[in-house]
Each structure stands twice: as C-alpha cells, then as structure tokens.
Specification:
Layout lengths: L6 H9 L12 E5 L4 H12 L3 E6 L2 H12 L5 E5 L5 H15 L4 E4 L16 H26 L6 E7 L10 H21 L5 E7 L6 H6 L5 H10 L10 H12 L10 E4 L9
Parallel strand pairs: 1-2, 1-4, 2-3, 4-5, 5-6, 6-7
Helix pairs in contact: 2-9, 4-5, 5-6
Length: 279
C-alpha cells in the first residue's frame, strides 16, 4: 500500500456506485406529476426505500386517490395541489412540503400543465406553438427553480427532470414537442454545471410511448393523427412491447440515489430500443 494511501479513502472508493437501501431514509422527495403514471410509480419506489414523499398535481381527486394507494406502502406521504407551470403555486407547495417534513432532498419534475399531442406543424395554430413553452418546458423548469432554496440546504441533493425522446429523435408531428424537449435536455446539462459547485446533481429521464400513463390512455382512446403515428411506433419495439411507467420510475429513482452520486448533467432514455439518436 502506498504510504500516502488512506484506508478510509479505499473503503469509500469501493462503496461507490453501490445501492444503499437506507439512502432515502429520513430524506424527502417532492414529485410534480406524482399522482399518476411514472411519477406515481416513482413515488411507490421512493416510499419503499424509506423516503418521505410529497406528490403534487393539479387535480385534488386524483391526488387523494393516489395518496390512499401510497399509504398502503408507507404513511410518510403528503399530497399538495398545485400547478407546476404556475410559479407562485409550485413555490408555495414546495415551501409547505419543506415545512412539513423539515426540508427537501430530491425534486422529481414530472408534471405538465396539460397534455400536448403530436400534430403536423403546418396544421398547428400559433397559440398551440406558444403554449408548448408553458406545458412542455416551463412546467419542468419552474419547479426546479422554486426548489433550489430548499435543495441548497441539503447535502447530496438532486433533481430529475422528465422529458421525451422527441427532443433527441423527433418523428412526424413532434416538431414543437421535440423542440421544447431538447430545451429541457440542454437545461439539464447547463444547470448541472452551474449547481455542481453546490453539490446538487441534475439529470433527466427521456421517455417514449409508455404504457400505464395518462398519455397512453389519451392516445389510444379514439381515432386521431397521434393514434395513427403511435400505433405504428408500438409495433416497432424490438423487445416486443413498449416500456411501462414502472421502467421509467426505476430510472428516476436510480438517478436520485447514492448509486448515481457521480452522475450529473445526463439524460437517460427509457425507450425500449425504439431509437438510438441522441446528444
């Protein structure tokens, strides 16, 4: 052994990347869009790993139903109604969560003000183009900005943003969706660099067509342009089926965990091998 080697340093190094089952014990996770789909599935995993979990959404009925489901796993859950695309609302919700649990360690920004459907650019109205700024971009970024005063107080804090693979490999009808998703991916890189000095990690999970989500239900509910697009996509998954919300949740929890403590500024695609374009 080198004379300058430190036994403790060696032990710490050997533990890097290991999953610590107690990592989330007494830590608080705030999940926008946590009342359904991948956000709800992530909440289940965080609770099972010992975290306090705050789920946030715009609909009280859905939030109360999700809370009841989550309490079967652990009583350490709280629902706060707020719109992630409205800064004052989401900031107040974060303040309430921090006061209730004594701080916030992890932000998962998975909510959106409303859905956005694929549509040929030439058929879009100007308001549809502009509204994407709020529904697809601001609803992801504003919660992180509002959470920073809380995250900066917690050692090892992290944020995980949800976006779509359309930002890396857009298909027909996803020009605007892809543009705003690409902005989220770029912000993930930029913010990770800015916040590294404060030891706050920022990563993203990029989704594709995903089962067990409200988007999936909406797409296949009736005949439409987007249904035609995604029926073709669903038939091309090389593993025979699209990802499920639970697959996305697993990636979210991994990026927030001790196993990913040396990962920041990255976007992890959970797309079942449907595409491999990226940056």
């Amino acid at each position: 052994m080198d004379e300058g080697a430190n036994v403790n340093d060696t032990q710490t190094s050997s533990d890097r990347g290991a999953w610590r089952t107690d990592h989330f014990t007494d830590r608080t996770v705030f999940i926008t869009g946590g009342t359904s789909g991948s956000g709800l599935r992530a909440a289940e995993r965080f609770l099972a790993a010992g975290a306090n979990v705050v789920i946030n959404g715009r609909t009280r009925d859905r939030g109360e139903q999700a809370s009841e489901r989550l309490r079967a796993i652990s009583p350490r859950v709280l629902f706060i109604q707020a719109d992630g695309g409205q800064y004052d609302e989401i900031a107040a919700a974060l303040d309430e969560a921090a006061a209730h649990f004594g701080g916030i360690d992890v932000l998962v920004s998975a909510g959106a003000s409303e859905g956005a459907s694929p549509k040929p650019f030439v058929e879009m109205t100007s308001s549809e183009v502009v509204s994407g700024l709020t529904t697809l971009f601001a609803a992801r970024i504003l919660p992180l900005h509002a959470a920073l005063p809380h995250l900066r107080q917690r050692p090892g804090a992290s944020a995980v943003l949800l976006t779509t693979d359309a930002g890396r490999s857009a298909t027909t009808g996803e020009s605007v969706i892809g543009a705003y998703a690409a902005a989220v991916i770029q912000m993930t890189k930029s913010l990770a660099r800015e916040l590294a000095r404060e030891r706050i990690r920022v990563n993203a999970v990029s989704m594709t067509l995903t089962e067990d989500t409200l988007t999936w239900d909406s797409i296949f509910a009736s005949e439409s342009f987007e249904r035609k697009v995604f029926v073709k996509a669903a038939a091309r998954f090389p593993f025979g089926a699209p990802p499920q919300a639970a697959d996305v949740a697993a990636a979210i929890v991994f990026l927030a965990s001790s196993a990913a403590e040396q990962i920041t500024g990255q976007t992890l695609s959970v797309n079942g091998g449907l595409s491999f374009g990226g940056w």
